[in-house]
């Protein structure tokens, strides 16, 4: 530890013998040096500094020093389990709670912020947030003139609710009892009032709390809906599904899902309005889950997946399409493919939508199927057993709408990725090389790219399985590709394609044909005779794309 830190520690340990200004300066120094630095936090904890700051909270009167001490205690707990545990063990929580009633708003804010940080540590929760006096105090702070204190107090109430959900049976009250008690003390009303009058982060905290307080609670959901005759609360939440913040959108959408699940939507919302509400909520969830695994986890934790599956069977085609987009976004997660989505039997519901009368629904369903048939998906075999291959091949016809064709070819490519021989045989019986050739000659580049990838995956073998064969003879099928005087030259044509990815996949196809097995030498000589070796050498020397060059280098190694 550096000399300045040691000096600050010594000064604080003997603060009674030092000036107030120097004690405050030492506290500020420690606060600044430990922010975001776990190593420094551990060093200062080992030096016994935490009890000193707790003692300051309990005994000192200077408000500036108290603000610094409260902030330091929160920093020790932030993102450090060891620090959180020691803060709870040091009896800091009662001292911080006492400061919540202080007349200085900056001191109240500092203490409340540290308590909020502590509540992130679920293994050592404080009990004051479940006691009547604690709840009343937090509800009072929801009406504080400072928005920052509003946001913190709302979050603490919400965290308390979430702790009960995550740790059922650990406390002396149930989630329903806590929800009712907070509501009885005016908590939900205060949270809704802040939602309607505030913006940005404070609204996000309010939505977070409302989602938790209305979850599986028809009474509080009904209160939210009937609180105002003009339904301003519901209209505000609907509007927030279009907010710029992805988290705000997701929280607003889950609030709406809670209201739908508890069946409290007002009669003034006719069926078309209610259905539009469902569609918007599903669309918001789909967008948020498309890129964020945290959002996917939150949807699973909220047990929304069974509802999404039920929406796949809605009479409203827009809702079916939106639910399908949700399923697609959720299926981007390997974890959910293997757990919650598999448990919900979502693959069978999506399969049925491949025959949906709505083109938009069929497009969404094929896009979802791209993820459901990947090699690591437990739903892959279910889809195959229920005729997905035949249906996808039907959609590859050139008369079919472009996006539906593209998604279907993409799904076939994914289905063939690392597939064993029986699956490749099943696909080729339906697809045939003749149709594959038609796809390779398609005028649209994305179609060609996926068709080449199908050919690449057909030619691939791993250590446990050789290539596919239509007559269950692995060598015969690889040789079938080689003997096609239409397919092989067509692959060669793509070595000069303007699209980098197509050039890359074309070389990859040749590389896979050179996998080591009994027929490798004959194929190697044939490919050299057709000029492929020279084409690949040229690609290595002249292609401007590094990925293509890398693929060419690998192919040359196979040739040699």
From TrEMBL:
<dbReference type="InterPro" id="IPR011989">
    <property type="entry name" value="ARM-like"/>
</dbReference>
<dbReference type="InterPro" id="IPR016024">
    <property type="entry name" value="ARM-type_fold"/>
</dbReference>
<dbReference type="InterPro" id="IPR038739">
    <property type="entry name" value="ARMC8/Vid28"/>
</dbReference>
<keyword id="KW-0963">Cytoplasm</keyword>
<dbReference type="GO" id="GO:0043161">
    <property type="term" value="P:proteasome-mediated ubiquitin-dependent protein catabolic process"/>
</dbReference>
<dbReference type="InterPro" id="IPR000225">
    <property type="entry name" value="Armadillo"/>
</dbReference>
<dbReference type="Pfam" id="PF00514">
    <property type="entry name" value="Arm"/>
</dbReference>
<dbReference type="GO" id="GO:0005634">
    <property type="term" value="C:nucleus"/>
</dbReference>
<keyword id="KW-0539">Nucleus</keyword>
<keyword id="KW-0677">Repeat</keyword>
<dbReference type="GO" id="GO:0005737">
    <property type="term" value="C:cytoplasm"/>
</dbReference>
<protein>
    <submittedName>
        <fullName>Armadillo repeat-containing protein</fullName>
    </submittedName>
</protein>
<feature type="repeat" description="ARM">
    <location>
        <begin position="91"/>
        <end position="118"/>
    </location>
</feature>
<dbReference type="GO" id="GO:0034657">
    <property type="term" value="C:GID complex"/>
</dbReference>
């Amino acid at each position: 530890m550096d000399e300045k830190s040691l000096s600050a520690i010594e000064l604080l340990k003997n603060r009674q013998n030092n000036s107030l200004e120097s004690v405050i300066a030492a506290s500020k120094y420690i606060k600044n040096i430990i922010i975001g630095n776990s190593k420094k936090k551990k060093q200062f904890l080992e030096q016994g500094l935490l009890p000193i700051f707790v003692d300051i909270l309990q005994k000192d009167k200077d408000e500036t020093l108290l603000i610094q001490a409260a902030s330091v205690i929160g920093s020790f707990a932030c993102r450090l389990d060891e620090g959180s545990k020691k803060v709870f063990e040091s009896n800091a929580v009662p001292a911080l709670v006492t400061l919540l009633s202080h007349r200085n708003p900056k001191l109240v804010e500092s203490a409340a912020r540290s308590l909020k940080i502590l509540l992130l540590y679920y293994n050592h929760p404080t009990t004051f947030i479940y006691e009547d006096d604690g709840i009343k105090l937090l509800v009072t702070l929801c009406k504080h003139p400072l928005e920052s204190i509003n946001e913190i107090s709302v979050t603490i109430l919400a965290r308390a609710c979430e702790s009960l959900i995550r740790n059922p049976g650990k406390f002396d009250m149930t989630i329903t009892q806590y929800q009712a008690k907070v509501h009885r003390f005016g908590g939900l009303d205060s949270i809704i009032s802040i939602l309607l009058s505030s913006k940005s982060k404070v609204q996000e905290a309010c939505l977070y709390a409302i989602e938790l307080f209305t979850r599986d609670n028809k009474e509080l959901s009904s209160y939210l809906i009937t609180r105002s005759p003009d339904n301003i609360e519901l209209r505000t939440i609907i509007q927030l599904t279009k907010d710029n913040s992805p988290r705000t959108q997701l929280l607003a959408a889950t609030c709406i899902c809670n209201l739908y699940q508890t069946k409290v939507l007002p009669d003034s919302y006719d069926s078309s309005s209610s259905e539009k509400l469902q569609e918007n909520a599903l669309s918001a969830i789909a967008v948020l889950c498309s890129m964020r695994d945290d959002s996917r986890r939150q949807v699973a934790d909220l047990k929304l997946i069974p509802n999404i599956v039920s929406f796949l069977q809605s009479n409203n085609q827009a809702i079916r399409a939106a639910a399908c987009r949700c399923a697609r976004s959720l299926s981007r997660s390997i974890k959910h493919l293997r757990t919650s989505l598999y448990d919900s039997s979502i693959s069978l519901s999506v399969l049925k939508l491949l025959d949906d009368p709505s083109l938009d629904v069929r497009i969404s369903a094929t896009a979802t199927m791209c993820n459901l048939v990947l090699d690591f998906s437990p739903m892959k075999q279910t889809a195959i057993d229920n005729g997905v291959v035949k249906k996808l091949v039907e959609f590859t016809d050139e008369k079919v709408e472009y996006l539906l064709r593209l998604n279907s070819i993409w799904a076939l490519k994914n289905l063939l990725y690392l597939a064993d021989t029986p699956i490749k045989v099943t696909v080729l019986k339906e697809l045939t090389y003749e149709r594959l050739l038609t796809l390779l000659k398609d005028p649209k580049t994305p179609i060609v790219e996926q068709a080449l990838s199908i050919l690449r995956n057909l030619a691939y073998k791993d250590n446990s399985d050789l290539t596919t064969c239509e007559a269950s003879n692995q060598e015969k099928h690889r040789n079938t590709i080689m003997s096609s005087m239409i397919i092989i030259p067509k692959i060669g044509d793509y070595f000069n394609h303007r699209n980098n990815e197509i050039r890359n996949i074309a070389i990859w196809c040749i590389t896979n044909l050179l996998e080591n097995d009994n027929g490798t030498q004959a194929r190697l000589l044939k490919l050299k005779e057709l000029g492929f070796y020279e084409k690949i050498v040229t690609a290595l020397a002249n292609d401007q794309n590094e990925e293509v060059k890398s693929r060419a280098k690998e192919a040359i190694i196979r040739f040699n």
